[in-house]
Structures are given as C-alpha cells and as structure tokens.
Task: structure prediction
Amino acid sequence: MRQRTMEHYQSGRSSTESHLDLVGLGVLTVLESLHGANGPEFRQAVDGDADAILQIMSGAFAREPGTQKYERDRSRLREEIDTHWVLSRRGEVVGALHTQVDEIQVGRTTITKVDVGEVCVYPSCQSEGLGTILMQRLVDQLKADGHTLSRLGGYRRFYERFGWAPFPRGSVEFPLQGLTSRSGFTDPVPFLDRVDEDVHIRPYDGKRDAEACERLYRAFNEGRTGARPTRSFGAGTGNPWQVVHEQEGEVRAYVFANQNDPPFGRLSSAVSISDAACDPAWTAPLGESLRYLLRQAAVSGAESVRARLPLDPTLYDLYRDASCGFIPSLWQSSEGGNMLQILSLRRLLEGIAPELAARAKTAGLPCTDVTLRLQDETVGIVWNGKSVFVGDASRDPVELGQDGLMKLILGLLPAEQVVSRDRTDASILRTLFPVQPTATGVWG
Result:
C-alpha cells in the first residue's frame, strides 16, 4: 500500500469514510464493526509503547532519525510517556497522539485546557478509519475525565467532525519598517537605537533572575484573562534573545524572544517574542527592553517580529513608542490552524462563576438570569445579588457557537458583536463578559 503522511490523511476523509458519508458516532459505530469484535483499543501509553509510537510519528510526519524533531520526540517519549495515548489493534500500536494539560485564567478564576498534538496513524494503516476512532475515543476520554476545554492545530475538515471549531490566534506584530511623514521608509536600526537605555539591558541569567522574573510575571498577569496563572523560569544563561532590564540592582522587566529557522511567513517570523512582563506600575522598562530586542531583530535581518503580548489597549502607547509601529492581530486561517473545543458548557461556566459574580457585583447588576445554548447543551446562569449559580435553563436561550462564546469568555469582543442587539440578554452578557486586556499565546 502506498504510504501517505498524516497531513495528507487529515486533509480529507479516508476512502472508507467517504464511502459511508457519515460523521461522529455513526461513522465510529460502523468503523468499529468493520474492525470486528477484537477492534482497536484506546488507552494511555506505557513505557513499552515508546518505540512503536516513535516509529509511527517518524513515518507519519517524515521525521528522520537524527533530526531535531525526531530527537525531541524520542526524549519526550522517554520522559513523559504518560502524556501520550495510543490506539492498538490485535496488540499492535497503530495510532497515537500527545496531550498536555494546561491552565488558563479567566479573570481571577482558572480553567483547565488540554492541548492535543502529534495525532498520527501508522502510514500503512491509513484510510481504514483508524484516525476517526482515535479522535472520537479521545474526545470521550477528555469528557469522562472532566476537562473543560481543548485546543489543537490542524485541518478543519478532519477535526471539525469531532467538535473542534476554528479559533483565531492572537498576537502583536511589529513590522520593522514604517512610513515616515515624507512617505519614505524608516530604517529601524538607527530609529530604535537608545544607547542610554541599553546600559540597563543584559542577557537573562537563570541563577540570578529566575525568582525576579517569576514575580514580574505574576504581577503583570494577575487577573489577566488568557494568561497562565504562573510560569517557571529555567536556569539558562547567555541567550542574547532573552534579556532583562536591571536598574539599581533590581530586575524591572524581561523580554524573551527566539530566532527561528525558515521558512518564514505571517505566523512564523524570523524572530518571535514568546513572553514579556514588567511591574504594571512602571512599564517604561518593558518598553526599553522591547525596543532593544526589536532593534536586534532588525540587525539580524528580520522584516517583522511576531509577539505573544497582551491585546491590552493600556499598553498600546508603549508598543507604539517602542517600535516602528505595531498591529494587534486576531489571525484566523481557513483550511487549517488553531481550533478550540468546549467539552462541557456547564463545567466551563461553573469554573468561572466566581469571576462572573465579582463582575456582576462591581457593576451593580440587579438580580437576573440568562440562559445559554451551545450545540445540544443548554445551561442557565443565575445572579442573586451575591453569587452566580449555574444550573437548569429558565428562559429562552441565547444561541451561541463555540467561536462566539469563547470570544466572550476571553474578552475579545463586546457582547453586542456576538449576540443580537435587540435581545435584553445582550446587556447582561456585556456585564458578565466585558472586553478584557487579554493575554495571547495560551489559547492560540
């Protein structure tokens, strides 16, 4: 049988599925019946599966032994085998995937998110519907384990059938050329040069700076929707793309960037910024650090820098003054890309209920209720003046798609752009889900 990469498999239906022209549990039932009584088993991977998984990943993704990605896969399988799941048939592993549980803030509450990746079927076993069984079993497992949200990157036509929906990636883009008043182009190297500021900037040193950077991260992202609650900082040192701003012996800000390998595109710039933070009461050191790294990127030949920085209007003046210009972006790709799935509307709302109550109290919202419907799940939200309760529906529901609801929850759009303006529910949702200075990176 001709071997095909998983990319080819995911870009369309297998021949078996195209013939059946069924989706979801219907096609799953038929596919399992075709595989017989001893059909595929979905389970968490164990140490003895590592070599088989590595072989499948190598074949499906064309990762040759000795390459960086192959060695990364082998190391992760050795150290984190329990984050992998396999599909086995007659005792042989024929499919696999990787999951990673993460946390994401919604205001001062935290929900879990499961990232799914490295979905692959052994090349010689493709076109047999095994990918469908693998993904449906995963969704069932995630729901049974009580998870709230899942994210992956992949081809829409494959993953939409299992509940994931396209969702934009958020970022701030810094073009390293900008129009001047004379309709020419700014040379970013001299334009961003600040010798007096550069004396405060040095490479990150994990032994000296890790604790200070952790404090800055917590302060900068306290209550910030879209951010992780905490993050750790490694012991590395000497990376010229990871810098801190130090003044009078105190670290005031940090900016961590990466120099990437080609090919470059809209979502893969030659230099990208993965994280940055400062004391929110004194943001100038962040601007100086950002300006320094953007200049270094220009010197290296980068035409733009894509940054995982907050979509925070209170920081937009800083972004502008530290750069040649910037573009806040919600990039939505078409054929494939970032995708989210709400695994349980009720659990999601229960997880953020304390934050919704705090918002209602701050806004002086009168006692009220609103009902939301997402696909086949209908849930009521009741505000009694003290607490928010999540329970059964009590009125006609507001119909929402996953894209619109997640944009509300992440504070990316005002309620009036998601819900019809003539609904009284819109004002309630505007209070419960206001636009936020949202962090980027964790959700897409």
Observations:
- Confidence is low (pLDDT under 50) at residues 1-25.
